[in-house]
């Protein structure tokens, strides 16, 4: 008489065993879920990052506007404001601040930008502007 264990292994070859099929399906499903989760996390991180960047850029623009309002007595012209915005874009590219740095080091970034601007903008009111604040 055949041992029950032998019979089970004989009937259920490793290639088609129910347990290996269900394990394979589970593994496949979990890989898909894991991939979907990674995509979702990456997308949410990207969304969060773009929100931070928009907020930072808005903050810089707002700060420029505030400075402009403070400096009305010194007749700071709109072309100077435009120069500052252009310099901000250049600063972002030349100084090598990638999106993550802008996001994580927002305050540090703005301070560094102010110093950079003082060196480059041919606006004689710029240094006075930040002394007023």
Description:
The protein starts with a helix and ends with a helix. It is built from 6 helices and no strands. It is elongated. The model is unreliable at 1-24 and 127-133 (pLDDT under 50). The protein has helices spanning 4-11, 18-70, 78-94, 99-104, 106-120, 126-132. It has one domain (4-132). By secondary structure, the protein is mostly helical.
Low-confidence sequence ranges: 1-24, 127-133
- What pattern of helices and strands is seen along the backbone? HHHHHH
Strands, count: 0
Q: What general outline do the C-alpha atoms trace? A: elongated
- The fraction of residues in strands falls at under 5%
Average the pLDDT over all residues and give the rounded result.
57
How do the helices and strands line up, and which of them pair or pack?
Elements: H1 4-11, H2 18-70, H3 78-94, H4 99-104, H5 106-120, H6 126-132
Helix pairs in contact: 2-3, 3-5
Short descriptors:
133 residues, elongated, disordered N terminus
């Amino acid at each position: 008489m055949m041992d029950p264990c032998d019979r089970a292994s004989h009937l259920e070859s490793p290639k088609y065993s129910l347990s290996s099929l269900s394990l394979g399906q589970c593994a496949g499903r979990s890989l898909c879920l894991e991939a979907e989760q990674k995509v979702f996390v990456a997308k949410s991180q990207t969304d969060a990052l773009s929100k931070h960047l928009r907020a930072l850029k808005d903050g810089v623009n707002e700060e420029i506007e505030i400075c402009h309002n403070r400096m009305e007595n010194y007749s700071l012209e709109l072309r100077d404001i435009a120069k500052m915005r252009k310099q901000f874009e250049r600063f972002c590219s030349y100084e090598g601040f990638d999106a993550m740095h802008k996001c994580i080091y927002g305050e540090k970034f703005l301070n560094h930008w102010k110093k950079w601007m003082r060196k480059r903008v041919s606006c004689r009111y710029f240094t006075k502007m930040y002394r007023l604040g």
